[in-house]
Design brief:
heterodimer, A: 323 residues, mainly alpha, 70% helix, B: 273 residues, 13 helices, globular
Chain lengths: 323, 273
């Protein structure tokens, strides 16, 4: 990741021309300070993030139950086995399903809502607070409430029935062909507010004059949106899409609580599959291989996005886009 | 025509708002009903209002123990991640040194490591350290995984202070340590509040790590309590809804007060003004 422009700024202490010995001791002070301030975070991060990730790579080469010694080295067998397992491949597809629908439905919806709030509606501050609220709710509570609402004869079925739409009633979480769509609705409920907030921040950075100028030149609202607003919102959209994909690759809590990956594995994701094989079936070696596959997919995607789409650093992802 | 389109906008806006509110209201009101009432008519108001679901939970020691456990873990992991990230972000923001961007990149890469990828080795490490069923077994890894996000939010904020400020302090004989402690941190209160709120909410809602580390029911946090409650009382929807409502209340209350901070932290820059 290339340095951000303002990180090139060098902090020099005042009074540069100082005799040598003093300077050397100042340099030493600087390095001591750097070490002192950086080490605690680095140690915690190294021990509990980097080391476990590396260990997961190591475990993935073994047939191992999680207890006892690691002595049954199987090479790449765990990886071969994962890709030969229809259930795992299915889980991969489900992640892909959530990625595709998030990009094609959830993000445009969030953008639409953000544009809606831009139109000076009365009460929009309240609306914004409301829309974002699900983001701070826990996945578990969200999952439990929606599971109850989607139960056969629950709130959703009952409402459909009353509205005369009873042919639409389904076993929302128990039909393999339906369950992913139900989950997607819940996921969107929970996360669209986050993307909306990103878009609102991006929209605020676009000078009104540009849109007004386009209007004066005779562009209609749609044309202004298409040729002025959206292109200027590009960086925000690219970052929101990036975060959405990374999030969809890691989906776990909601699905684990609502379906546990079922029925008949029809809503597994890589993460639920991983937990299933580790803490239920105690095949830590095999589950580690799944973890490594998740990791590699995330990294490859990030590299691809970085190289071809962002053309800027991720660092700015959440914080510099407001500039 | 303009009137029609504006009305349409209002209708859409409040429809979306209703879609957000329905599940929350369903849970809150459901807690005031009996399961019989809910089964009889899922859509409807409590008739009569029943308070026993809530009072039974609020007077049970299990619930309060879980509140305490959640709170303890949230406080410990926030007190770990915010100071450590602030120190690291200070160095990244205000010192030029060889290897800085490499270290920084290593931290930002952490955003790509979902905790699921590392969960097995973390479990084994926590087990070897004897920290299973211990709040630290959750708080430590959680703090570690919170570092990337926190550092990424803090760094540009710390970098935005003019160099003249630090130079002036240096002329007055103020070294980097004092500058950090007496000038930078006090001036950064808003952003520190932001990252703290984010850390607390994240910890309060965390599920996977507690699920794996905390097996003894006495050590459970609220999310574990909610899932357990919903499997234990499968048939008693009203109780589950009451429990879910009570466990989401603290997060919603915190959100009501700190909404500005949360949003500002996630979108950056905005709080500078």
């Amino acid at each position: 990741m290339p340095p951000r422009p303002d990180s090139a700024r060098i902090v020099t202490p005042a009074g540069r021309a100082i005799a040598r010995p003093a300077r050397r001791s100042r340099v030493r002070t600087k390095w001591v300070t750097i070490a002192l301030f950086l080490l605690p975070a680095l140690v915690l991060y190294g021990l509990l993030v980097i080391a476990p990730v590396v260990q997961a790579i190591y475990y993935s080469g073994f047939d191992w139950s999680g207890l006892g010694s690691l002595d049954d080295f199987v090479g790449l067998e765990n990886f071969r086995r994962a890709f030969a397992d229809d259930v795992f491949v299915g889980a991969l597809w489900h992640n892909g399903f959530f990625i595709a629908l998030s990009l094609l439905v959830q993000l445009p919806f969030a953008l639409g809502v953000a544009l809606l709030l831009q139109a000076r509606l009365r009460g929009r501050a309240l609306l914004r607070v409301l829309y974002f609220a699900p983001f701070v709710l826990s996945e578990v509570v969200t999952g439990v409430i929606f599971t109850l609402m989607l139960q056969p004869d629950g709130l959703v079925d009952h409402s459909l029935d009353r509205a005369g739409l009873d042919p639409l009633i389904h076993q929302w979480l128990a039909e393999p062909g339906i369950v992913l769509w139900s989950l997607f609705v819940v996921i969107s409920w929970k996360y669209f507010g986050f993307h909306m907030i990103l878009y609102l921040a991006g929209l605020q950075q676009i000078p009104r004059e540009l849109e007004e100028a386009a209007m004066i030149d005779g562009a209609n609202r749609l044309q202004v949106l298409r040729y002025v607003t959206l292109p200027l919102l590009g960086p925000t959209i690219r970052i929101s899409a990036f975060l959405s994909v990374i999030g969809a690759l890691q989906l776990f809590d909601l699905i684990w609580v609502m379906t546990g990956g079922g029925p008949v594995n029809s809503s597994n994701t890589m993460a639920t599959y991983l937990i299933d094989w580790s803490f239920k079936r105690f095949q830590f070696g095999y589950a580690s291989a799944v973890a490594v596959i998740m990791l590699v997919i995330s990294l490859l995607f990030a590299l691809f996005w970085q190289r071809f789409v962002l053309r800027r650093d991720i660092e700015g992802a959440l914080t510099t886009m407001g500039r | 025509m303009r009137l029609v389109s504006r009305t349409l906008l209002y209708v859409i806006a409040w429809l979306v708002a209703a879609a957000i509110l329905v599940p929350v209201i369903y849970a809150v009101l459901g807690g005031f009903r009996t399961t019989g009432q809910i089964a009889g008519s899922p859509v409807g108001l409590p008739e009569p209002w029943v308070f026993t679901n809530y009072t039974e939970i609020l007077t049970s020691s299990t619930f309060w123990r879980q509140v305490f456990n959640s709170l303890l873990i949230a406080v410990v992991s926030t007190l770990l991640v915010v100071p450590l990230a602030a120190m690291a972000a200070f160095v990244f923001a205000r010192f030029a040194f060889r290897g800085r961007e490499i270290f920084y990149t290593v931290f930002t890469l952490g955003l790509l490591f979902p905790i699921a990828v590392a969960i097995l080795p973390i479990f084994i490490m926590v087990r070897n350290l004897g920290l299973l069923d211990n709040p630290l077994g959750v708080a430590l890894p959680q703090a570690a995984f919170g570092l990337p996000m926190t550092i990424i939010i803090l760094r540009p904020f710390f970098a935005s202070f003019p160099n003249e400020l630090q130079d002036a302090a240096a002329i007055d004989g103020c070294g980097p340590l004092r500058f950090f402690w007496q000038i930078l941190l006090p001036l950064s209160r808003p952003v520190l509040a932001t990252v703290s709120v984010l850390a607390i909410v994240g910890s309060w809602n965390a599920f996977l790590l507690p699920l794996v580390v905390l097996t003894d029911a006495d050590t459970w946090t609220l999310p574990l309590g909610v899932t357990n409650y919903s499997t234990q009382y499968t048939a008693d929807i009203a109780r589950i809804l009451a429990f879910a409502t009570l466990s989401m209340a603290p997060a919603l209350i915190l959100y009501a007060f700190a909404e500005r901070h949360i949003v500002a932290g996630l979108t950056g820059g905005a709080i500078k003004g």
